[in-house]
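Sample intake — ABC transporter
Collected from: Halorubrum coriense DSM 10284
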Amino acid sequence: MIDLDGVTCRYGRGGGDGDADAAVATVAVDDVSLSVPDGEFLVVAGANGSGKTTLVRTFNGLVEPDAGTVTVNGTPVDEDLVAARSAVGMVFQDPRDQLVAATVGADVAFGPENLGLSHDEIDRRVADALAAVNMAGRERERIDSLSGGERERVAIAGALAMDPDHLVLDEPFTGLDEPARRSVVDRLRALHRGGTGVVVVTHDLRDVAALADRIVGLADGRVAVDAPPDEAVSALPGLDVRVPESGKFASPAE
Ligand SMILES: Nc1ncnc2c1ncn2[C@@H]1O[C@H](COP(=O)(O)OP(=O)(O)OP(=O)(O)O)[C@@H](O)[C@H]1O
Ligand SMILES: [Mg+2]
């Protein structure tokens, strides 16, 4: 469970020369209170610059709020960063910011290796995480030989290998073609069904709206919509969010 209470994040405040700073400070996240229960599939939507990335980065301490509190499983994130990072896995928008090793197996093993686990346990976690993204047995392949969709799935596997309660993905579909998008969506659906909480940040709801339990729409750093998909859809176009063409959300494909 992730809990935000009155979270506010600013950029450009202080550290410069005097009162000019106050004028240029951006309030990226403005007094947001939000709970994300275990197992929930939450979509965070909103236009460019509405504060989506900043908001979700508070979930595991990558961004520290200027005001308000974030707790994960009841513990304030700033009191136990390690616990927050193991409970909330983050997949960055650009896999190049995430993939650190030369091969698939080494990359997915990177996180678990830092947990001091046995080799057998690390190998098992890597194998399970790759299976969960439909890349079973591909440990020895080089990252630079993979397609964009495969890299995205390896980045997801790297987060999964830490066995998080919640998996947060920031714009996971950027730059992916339709088959690759579908493949990632299918994996997210399967993870959610398996009990992992999934948080997807996007300004394009076409692929994920049907999977969501809830959609939170941000506008200028504030929560403008917080509703199940079928209720949220009428409010979202006003937030400059791309919605499915029918204007309705189909049930998830079985
Ligand atoms: N490192 C930074 N320094 C200064 N301002 C920033 C920084 N990161 C974000 N901002 C500003 O904070 C606001 C919210 O940005 P954020 O990246 O959280 O929004 P977003 O909804 O994720 O946008 P996008 O759709 O472009 O990814 C924007 O006005 C942005 O310009
Ligand atoms: Mg962003």
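Post-analysis note: The chain has a mean pLDDT of 89.
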